[in-house]
Amino acid sequence: AVVVGDLNDPHQQEFLRGHDMEISTLAMSASGAMLASGQLGTTRVKGFGAPVIVWDMTTKQVVFTLQGHTQCVDLLRFSPDERFLAATGADSLLHIWDMQTGELVLGKKFANNGPVTVFHWGGASVKSRRTRYEVVYALPGEVFNAELFFDPTRQQWMLEHNLMGMPSSGMVRQYQCSERTYDGEELVLGTMMGDLVVFKLSTQVYRASVPVCSGGLLSLASGPGNEVFCGGGDGSIRKLRGDDMRWTLLAEAQVEGGVTSLSLNGAKDELLVGTNHGRIYRMLTQDLTAQLVAVGHTSKVCCVAFGHRSDVFASGTVDGNLKVWDLSDYGVLSECSVTAEQGGDPGVSAVSWVKDEALVSAWRDKTIRCHDASSMRSLWEIANAHRAPLTAVEVHGGEALSYVVSGAQDGSVRVWALRSREMMLQFAEHHKAVTSVLVDVRQPHLVHSSSLDCQVLTYDLRRERRTVGHQVREGAFTAMTQRVDSEQELVTCDNTGRLLFWDCDVADPVQVLQSPQRMRMSCAAVSPTGSYLAICGDFLVSIFDLAGGIRLMAQGHGHSQPVTALKWSPDEKQVVSVGEDCCVCVWNFYGAAA
How far is the first Cα of the chain from the last one, in angstroms, to the nearest whole number? Predict the structure, then answer.
């Protein structure tokens, strides 16, 4: 989805839904009347098509769905008069569409030179009562000045180009971005070498190469007074002023992550800055003072957890990033990243709260870690807690009994004293990976576990043994939750699309719900009052009314990749889901009255 938000109110968001894969690029028309979005090639339809969608920003409706690209749409650009939209992609194609009719007016493939990395509209002129458009585009190592015009003889639009003059020494660059200076005299391009390459448009020749940053010059924006704002892969933002061969550094700032996007507001006094570390900043153009306005994950989010508070939750990712979020403004209260000692990503598998003060998390590097929730300072860790990567963790922090229970890929379940971190008990009855561990909602001395071996087991910590076991012939259990009403049945979901309800006194499931599509279900969560059940299968979040006879109440589609986990807020007003698309989705829930 394309998210249209209010910078001054994070709760004011609108969602433009039309893509079925991750969105790869955006472009806004000069007047703001139209928005274009491109995506990665779809894996759901044969051919890996990557459509471009044009949206009417007044009605928030689709104007055109433009086909032609495959693999990925890399770049979108509206012409200054909003007559045309140009798109380039990883398939080495250049497409130009008429925005009045949605018709393709030009298609060109650059098979031998590689994809078009830069496309920039210039001025327009009228010759023989027909408008001709100046454009500049770049291929790896080459820059072309071209003209788009309608040929009445052939009755089609044509693109004639000339190669820009380069130094005789044969300078070769990989171009990433482009802007035209405010006076229109020069075209400046950012390169992977980190320099700003300047071309004189009137003579179509190279004029200068200005070193700017390291890590590549990834984004550009031009402002009044021939000011050029440069965003680097090293997280630097520099404001330059000049022309031709004379450029002066006026100001610079540093942000977290490579600067992949720079956009000026209408008044030209503020920049919107996006980075590849999932940060969005508002930055004053005068002195480059920055304010962080949004944060997101940049890798697969695999776990989410609430404590006792309804306005704070935690999430963790496969690359070892742990965040604590504030639901009042969707900001990050604290975060940390853990790097594996022997390389690779340690990866957070599960997270659980300790009295709203600390987070206990399970990691793929076989470690259980505890962090202070407010500062993310490391409090303690249990190294080599299991012989295999951890998959699940749960904490019980009662006065009489406090412990941590963990599960791993080798099927083992271990119980640890919360205060001393000593191992109290170990159970090794599962034959495959443990997918969930739960502390019983009524009797905290009971612990439940589910596994890919189609078993649900219950352990009595006082008697130090397994007391109940349930098993099915097929359908590996992917997640488990427990009802707080009725008989406190355990609810499991599996990879064949079944929801199974288990009573400790009955060997077989007391109730079975089967998805008509037999779609794999990845997670399930009973609401705090026990009235509702939220489940995820593939990309959908579904809410069932348990009190009304397990009736489907609502479904939400917000993820572009499979959902990995979800949790209810303690006040039962929101559901938070996370997925492989790096997204955290917050769903408002209004109960049965809705």
Answer: 24
